[in-house]
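Fold this complex.
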Amino acid sequence: MLSNKKDIRALSKEQLRDFFTENGDKAFRGNQVYEWLWQKGVHSFSDMTNISKETREMLQNNFVINHIEVDQMQRSSDGTVKNAVRLHDGLVVESVLIPTETRTTACVSSQVGCSLDCQFCATARLKRMRNLNPDEIYDQVAAINKESLLYYNHKLSNIVFMGMGEPLMNYNNVLKAIEKITSPEGLGISPKRITVSTSGVPKMIKKLADDEVKFNLAVSLHSAIDEVRTQIMPFNKNFPLADLKEALQYWYAKTKRRVTYEYIVWNGINDTRDAINALVKFCKHIPCKVNLIEYNPIDDGDFQQANAKAIDDYISILEMNDIIVNVRRSRGKDIDAACGQLANKS
Ligand code: SAH
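Structure:
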């Protein structure tokens, strides 16, 4: 049920401290409540056991604790775990835990649905319903951290914003969530272990550089030829490659951090020598690396993963040009948890 009371987690620590002093209590009480909300992650005021009953009742009368609920959890045969996450208003997003031998990575969502229109992505078929709040993003990470401890006996090691949505179209909330994820009062995860992936919104890439963020940036490039990119990612018409290039150069000048380009090779779309040459040229603009990602079919035939020969051509020509290239196998396909498959199907 929706409540008119304010979500207490929308308050900063300062605001919570002020709330208590304004109500005749000590500012320190704000710190205690903040710790319950963020470090201990309680979902109910009654769980705040070092707070007096009267104070808990007073909080209950003024606030709610909006929180996510992991509705359904599926485990893939390769160990990948997908959470269907129910938000306080009933909408659902998905997040994924991806284990490897040495680490676990959380792949989290930033929007319900997506504002962009990549033709090969299942999430794009859901219209964008709303942005996630900072705490809804944080909660997905906290839930996956718990699962990582439970199933793999260690804390979550990395986070990628590659779930549903375009993180740079929900800029402020994503940055607020990352602030909390990296803070010692939150999960204390280093920003070096966080990657934000964008389809490439030039203005917002520049803003990231201006805001001196410390996390990594990945760009879903998929083609370095405008006509082709516009065909598969129609928003490229408004944000053409020249603007993207300029924004990335700005990013690099300010941060000195290498950008990762995500790239899928499809049959008949970008499996030509011209396409490879264009990518090589684009890669020369700033230090970067290329992740060739496996295509996960989303049930129509327009897009098909190119054959091994085409991918080998990409690898050898990129390497010949001293460009770092990795091939990323997809994970969790049997439970629709792989890149681009998140569409609330479970
Ligand atoms: N909007 C952001 C983050 C979400 S998509 C972005 O575009 O980067 C995360 C990654 O999955 C992107 O690189 C995207 O291009 C890729 N992707 C989308 N659909 C896919 C599919 N069907 N198979 C494989 N990767 C896909």
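The radius of gyration is 22 Å.
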